[in-house]
Write a structure and sequence with these properties.
The relative contact order is 0.19. The longest helix is centred in the first third of the chain and has 10 residues, at 6-15. The chain has helices at 6-15, 30-35; strands at residues 19-24, 42-49, 57-61, 72-77, 83-88, 92-99, 104-113, 122-123, 126-127, 130-136. The chain has a single domain, classed as Lipocalin. A hairpin with a 4-residue loop joins strand 6 (92-99) and strand 7 (104-113). It has 143 residues and is mainly beta. The strands form 2 sheets. The chain has an 8-stranded antiparallel beta barrel with strand order 1-2-3-4-5-6-7-10. The protein has 2 helices and 10 strands; from the N terminus they run αβαβββββββββ.
């Protein structure tokens, strides 16, 4: 089998996951979900390159509740098939790791700040929030 350069390999892997998703955080209470204005619960993973190396791709917020400008929104597929998705204003953000088939991705979301970029794996006494993302149709598309 021919060896692909890293950019082509990343593009092929990303193609399987590119699309729109709706995410839930099952542990959030109704009040927490209403207060959320930073973590997009509806988003699009595109196959547009976010960096010149072609390893990271553009993620787009499609959640009208998230009013913060996401200066950094990108994703990639790791060699083990895990999706790394990052949302950030530059000061605060979420690192999300997802696995599974594109129809239903599962993982965790870790909140961080510029003053504490690597918070502990457990927030307070609570474990990292688990997330579930289901593929949905993209606005303005036929799917």
């Amino acid at each position: 089998m021919a060896q692909y350069n890293p950019w082509i390999k990343s593009l092929i892997q990303a193609g399987a996951f590119a699309g729109c998703y709706e995410m839930r955080v099952p542990a959030w209470s109704a009040a927490e979900a209403r207060r959320n204005d930073l973590l997009p619960l509806r988003f699009q993973l595109t196959s547009l390159s976010a960096q010149t190396d072609g390893i990271w791709f553009v993620a787009r917020n499609q959640d009208p509740k998230v009013r913060h400008a996401m200066l950094f929104a990108s994703w990639r597929v790791d060699p083990d098939g895990t999706i790394d998705l990052g949302w950030s204003t530059g000061y605060v953000g979420y690192n999300i790791q997802l696995t599974g088939p594109a129809a239903e991705l599962r993982g965790t979301a870790q909140y961080w700040t510029d003053t504490d970029p690597r918070p502990p794996a457990v927030e307070g006494n609570r474990p990292l929030p688990k997330v579930v993302a289901h593929r949905v149709g993209c606005p303005g598309s036929a799917n």
